[in-house]
């Protein structure tokens, strides 16, 4: 059997035509196509909010409340305490954040908060001691606000007077304010953050705006920021400002213990003094107590006569009051005469010299 051989058809190769970089636009646009709009979200501030290992449960709840109030935040897992703080700049760069808020715990008691501008590690950065912490769940206030809504920021008049507060004001504005048209934010303004400077501390409060005439209702959380230092760089650099009135919490606890110890020492000393000065007799003898020792009236009369005679002799030996006053006056006159004579002698000497 013979095989039939078929001729293979030649495949026509297509010519590669270069695409036009600027294709012509269609003469008409269909109604289904969306109109290209200009991007509204221009201020792309992102804040990295996280904590180092060693914070307590209350501090963790405060950090969660702050994350709830800031829809433009970026979360991050806990940082190891062995790492240096300069690593935060690299973490912010990887997360595309230009601000950082780090919570650092000490001894499960004290909470420190860092607020820094990490864009290019240029700074500045500020360190605060957080005091009087009250979270939203703890307060149970009547106020309420929309989740993700944009807040108003209200600052005390002192923030425009002191130079270090001017710097902190700008840092807080860039950190706490929610950017306009942020994807996770709501287009409403229904609460206000207040920063009040009192007693060398910054008091933070969050209020709901009830009405246009200024009616407010607190939402929470509330805490007090005690500024410690302001640095030139982001978590590094020179110290621009340092709080002269700052006392560390460990030092305060040490002073309280010392005061309690002094109180105990004083109490022991009082007991020793009381034992040393305790009287031997229950009471001291009253005057003329020998009159009551004998019931015989004749003996009592003799004793009274002897006492009267003794008083008379004592009065006779004493100098009368008039004589004493006369002697005092004579001594005073004598002293005045001596002073006058000394002044006359000095005047006579001056006249001779002239």
Structure description:
By secondary structure, the protein is of the alpha+beta class. The protein has a domain at 47-246: Brix domain (Rossmann fold), CATH 3.40.50. 34% of the residues lie in helices and 23% in strands. The chain is built from seven helices and eleven strands. The chain has helices at residues 57-69, 87-94, 136-139, 163-176, 249-276, 297-317, 321-353; strands at 47-51, 73-75, 99-106, 110-117, 125-134, 149-155, 186-198, 201-209, 216-218, 222-231, 239-242. Strands 1, 2, 3, 4, 5, 6, 7, 8, 9, 10 and 11 form an eleven-stranded mixed sheet that branches. Helix 1 (57-69) links the parallel strand 1 (47-51) and strand 2. The longest helix has 33 residues, at 321-353. It is elongated. The N and C termini lie far apart (171 Å).
Question: What's the structural blueprint in terms of helices and strands?
Answer:
Blueprint: E1 47-51, H1 57-69, E2 73-75, H2 87-94, E3 99-106, E4 110-117, E5 125-134, H3 136-139, E6 149-155, H4 163-176, E7 186-198, E8 201-209, E9 216-218, E10 222-231, E11 239-242, H5 249-276, H6 297-317, H7 321-353
């Amino acid at each position: 059997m013979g095989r039939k051989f078929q001729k293979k058809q030649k495949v026509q190769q297509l010519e590669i035509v270069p695409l036009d970089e600027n294709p012509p636009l269609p003469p008409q646009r269909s109604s289904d196509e969306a109109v290209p709009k200009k991007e509204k979200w221009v201020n792309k501030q992102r804040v990295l909010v996280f904590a180092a290992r060693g914070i307590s449960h209350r501090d963790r709840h405060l950090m969660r409340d702050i994350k709830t109030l800031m829809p433009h935040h970026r979360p991050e897992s806990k940082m190891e305490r062995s790492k240096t703080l300069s690593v935060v700049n690299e973490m912010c760069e990887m997360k595309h954040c230009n601000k950082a808020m780090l919570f650092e715990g000490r001894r499960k008691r004290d909470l420190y908060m860092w607020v820094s501008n990490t864009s290019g590690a240029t700074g500045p950065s500020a360190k605060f001691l957080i005091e009087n912490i009250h979270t939203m769940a703890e307060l149970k206030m009547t106020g309420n606000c929309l989740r993700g809504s944009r807040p108003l920021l209200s600052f005390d008049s002192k923030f425009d007077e002191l130079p270090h507060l001017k710097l902190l004001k700008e840092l807080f504005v860039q950190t706490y304010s929610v950017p306009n048209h942020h994807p996770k934010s709501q287009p409403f303004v229904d609460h206000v953050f207040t920063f009040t400077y009192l007693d060398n501390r910054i008091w933070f409060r969050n209020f709901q705006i009830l009405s246009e005439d200024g009616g407010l209702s607190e939402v929470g959380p509330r805490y007090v920021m005690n500024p410690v230092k302001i640095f030139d760089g982001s978590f590094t650099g020179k110290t621009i400002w340092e709080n002269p009135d700052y006392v560390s919490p460990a030092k305060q606890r040490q002073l309280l213990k010392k005061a309690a110890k002094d109180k105990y020492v004083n109490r022991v000393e009082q007991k020793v003094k009381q034992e040393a000065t305790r009287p031997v007799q229950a009471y001291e003898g009253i005057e003329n107590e020998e009159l009551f020792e004998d019931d015989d009236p004749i003996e009592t009369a003799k004793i009274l006569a002897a006492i009267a005679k003794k008083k008379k002799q004592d009065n006779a030996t004493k100098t009368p009051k008039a004589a004493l006053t006369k002697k005092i006056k004579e001594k005073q006159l004598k002293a005045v005469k001596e002073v006058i004579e000394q002044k006359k002698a000095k005047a006579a000497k001056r006249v001779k010299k002239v």
